[in-house]
Amino acid sequence: MTSLPDSLPRIGLGTDRHRLVPDRACWLGGVLFGDCPVGPDGHSDGDAVLHALTDALLGAAGLEDLGTLFPDTDPTWQGVASESFLQAAIERLAAIGLHCWSVDLVVQCDQPKIAPQRDNIRRHLADLLALPVDRVNLKGKTREGVDAEIKAVDVTAVVLIGPTV
Ligand SMILES: [Zn+2]
User: Fold this and answer.
1) Which residues pair with 21 in a beta bridge?
2) Cα(42) to centroid(ligand 1), Å
3) 2 CA from centroid of ligand 1 (Å)
4) What domains are there in the chain, each with its CATH number?
5) Which of 8, 15, 95, 131 fits as disulfide partner to 135, beta carbons 3.0 to 4.6 Å?
6) What is the C-alpha to C-alpha distance for residues 111 and 36, in angstroms, rounded to an integer?
7) 37-73 pLDDT, tens per residue?
8) Cα(4) to centroid of ligand 1, in Å?
9) What is the Å distance from ligand 1's center to 43 Cα?
10) What does the DSSP assignment read for 104-160?
């Protein structure tokens, strides 16, 4: 088979992991966890939720991945808000007639607790993606004490994309 109709949906998977270190602002899903004593390390703001989501969108569309488009060796991206990566991915999809229609996310970390900000993150991501909030889901899980000495946040994102309507 050489091609499929453009109307068929496509799924994308993205994962990301950042170490959690002291004295870093803790941004996850574009929401600041203000009272968290640790935050994701990284060349940008380290927002692993936005990175995994961006990679899932790019992957679903068959585009180059986050690390290729926004390399951490490029000072342009130093300390940048990761929402710019997501916006750039949304624009690239739109340019080829694609829109994200559904998102599911799993965030694994022992700190911060995700539940108090879960609905804020869902609303925020839904706004960025131009989706109703019921199409953006997010689950917070602990790391069950595994690798207890190394604090980290792990995110898995699955998206469904399809033609713009
Ligand atoms: Zn990342």
Assistant:
1) 39
2) 7
3) 34
4) 10-163 (3.30.1330.50)
5) 131
6) 7
7) 999 998 889 999 999 999 999 999 999 999 898 888 8
8) 32
9) 8
10) EEEEE-SSS-SGGGHHHHHHHHHHHHT--GGGEEEEEE--TTTTTTS-EEEEEEEEE
Measured from the Cβ of residue 113, the count of other Cβ atoms closer than 10 Å reads 13
Partners of 59 in beta bridges: none
Rounded to a whole number of angstroms, the distance between the first and last alpha carbons of the chain is 26
Query: For residue 39, how far is its CA from the centre of ligand 1 (angstroms)?
Result: 12
Q: Tens digits of per-residue pLDDT, 97-125?
A: 999 999 999 999 999 999 999 999 999 99
Q: Give the Å distance between the CA of 51 and the centre of ligand 1.
A: 5
Contact 113, 36 (CB under 8 A): no
What pLDDT, in 10s, does the model give residues 85-94?
A: 999 999 999 9
